[in-house]
TrEMBL record:
<feature type="region of interest" description="Disordered">
    <location>
        <begin position="302"/>
        <end position="322"/>
    </location>
</feature>
<dbReference type="InterPro" id="IPR050186">
    <property type="entry name" value="TPT_transporter"/>
</dbReference>
<feature type="transmembrane region" description="Helical">
    <location>
        <begin position="43"/>
        <end position="66"/>
    </location>
</feature>
<feature type="transmembrane region" description="Helical">
    <location>
        <begin position="253"/>
        <end position="275"/>
    </location>
</feature>
<feature type="transmembrane region" description="Helical">
    <location>
        <begin position="156"/>
        <end position="174"/>
    </location>
</feature>
<feature type="transmembrane region" description="Helical">
    <location>
        <begin position="78"/>
        <end position="96"/>
    </location>
</feature>
<keyword id="KW-1133">Transmembrane helix</keyword>
<feature type="transmembrane region" description="Helical">
    <location>
        <begin position="186"/>
        <end position="207"/>
    </location>
</feature>
<keyword id="KW-0472">Membrane</keyword>
<dbReference type="Pfam" id="PF03151">
    <property type="entry name" value="TPT"/>
</dbReference>
<keyword id="KW-0812">Transmembrane</keyword>
<feature type="transmembrane region" description="Helical">
    <location>
        <begin position="12"/>
        <end position="31"/>
    </location>
</feature>
<dbReference type="InterPro" id="IPR004853">
    <property type="entry name" value="Sugar_P_trans_dom"/>
</dbReference>
<feature type="transmembrane region" description="Helical">
    <location>
        <begin position="219"/>
        <end position="241"/>
    </location>
</feature>
<protein>
    <recommendedName>
        <fullName>Sugar phosphate transporter domain-containing protein</fullName>
    </recommendedName>
</protein>
<dbReference type="GO" id="GO:0016020">
    <property type="term" value="C:membrane"/>
</dbReference>
<feature type="transmembrane region" description="Helical">
    <location>
        <begin position="281"/>
        <end position="300"/>
    </location>
</feature>
Length: 322
């Protein structure tokens, strides 16, 4: 057997990164659905803060073991990232509460064109016609199989607008910071996770009380719910890390486009575990269109001219590891 080429090794690592993200993301959705629907733990923002506490613990252990090297991220960049990330989390939770599920799904789909706009404006990216059409096909397919009732009001629209733009900016910033400061996924996560954990645990209980009229400190904790909370936090470590790995290796747009494969998997698993009432020709057709669009996007964006930067180079800042 011929030795693997550098391109083959990169393709294998890329595929492993995507599968890692898909498995952990789908896993945490299933666990959180059981935690909230079955055990009534509806404190989404506080739970996210717990996720980042667990992630901070993981990065601290890895740093002590020597797997994460010392690095530097300027405080202004850290604060910008945490601001975008926390507005994304809060915005998504509020948008889901104030909007119909259909409009919430449309808002999530709009992250792709917003991410494209950020790359065009800031990175001077040019997309080929096939790449643009493949993105449209993905949007069409996911829209067909997920968007149902659509209703929106003024405050719901504002929440969705904030959620979409903050999420797109947060994901763009992951790629930007890794390139600018030559940070690995572990290093960047080590800088951002403690700040997100502290801020979300500070704000989370109040926001969750505002959204649910329930207090997290008065929740009836039992063995089963604590096990699911622990499982959710454990999987979240992989979800957070895999997101940074994927966006660092690719771009926010690619992460969004191919990330909708998770939506398809969640629908399939939902039908398998929770009943087949929603499984119909309409949904299956949407899944097929979406998957076809993802395959087309992968081929189109990887071809010469499919997605290229126009005479632009990002200045790289070497981090001080002393």
């Amino acid at each position: 057997m011929a030795p693997a080429t550098k391109a083959d090794k990169k393709a294998a690592v890329d595929a492993a990164a995507w599968m890692f993200n898909v498995v952990t993301s789908v896993g945490i959705i299933i666990v959180n659905k059981a935690l909230m629907a079955t055990y009534g733990f509806s404190f989404a923002t506080t739970l996210t803060g717990m996720h980042f506490i667990t992630t901070t613990l993981m990065t601290t252990i890895l740093r002590c073991l020597g797997y994460i090297q010392a690095s530097h991220l300027p405080l202004p960049d850290l604060l910008k990232f945490v601001l975008f990330a926390n507005f994304s989390i809060v915005g998504m939770n509020v948008s889901l509460m104030w909007n119909s599920v259909g409009f919430y799904q449309i808002a999530k789909l709009s992250m792709i064109p917003v991410s494209c706009l950020l790359e065009v404006v800031f990175d001077k990216i040019r997309y080929s016609r096939d790449t643009k059409l493949s993105i449209c096909l993905v949007l069409l397919g996911v829209g067909v199989c997920t968007v149902t009732d659509v209703s929106v009001n003024a405050k719901g629209f504002i929440a969705a607008f904030i959620a979409v733009w903050s999420t797109a900016l947060q994901q763009y910033y992951v790629h930007y910071l890794q390139r600018k400061y030559s940070l690995s996924s572990f290093n960047l996560l080590g800088h951002t996770a403690p700040a997100q954990a502290a801020s979300l645990l500070l704000v989370g209980p109040f926001l969750d009380y505002f959204l649910t009229n329930k207090r997290v400190d008065r929740y009836d904790y039992n063995i089963a719910s604590v096990i699911f909370i622990f499982l959710s936090c454990s999987i979240a470590v992989g979800t957070n890390l895999s997101q940074f790995i994927c966006i660092g290796r690719f771009t926010a747009v690619s992460f969004q486009v191919l990330g909708h494969m998770k939506t398809i998997f969640v629908l399939i698993l939902g039908f398998f575990f929770f009943g087949k009432e929603g499984l119909n020709l309409h949904v299956v057709l949407g899944m097929i269109i979406a998957v076809a669009g993802m395959i087309w996007y992968g081929n189109a964006s990887s071809k010469p001219g499919g997605k290229e930067r126009r005479s632009y180079s990002l200045p790289t800042v070497k981090t001080d590891t002393r």
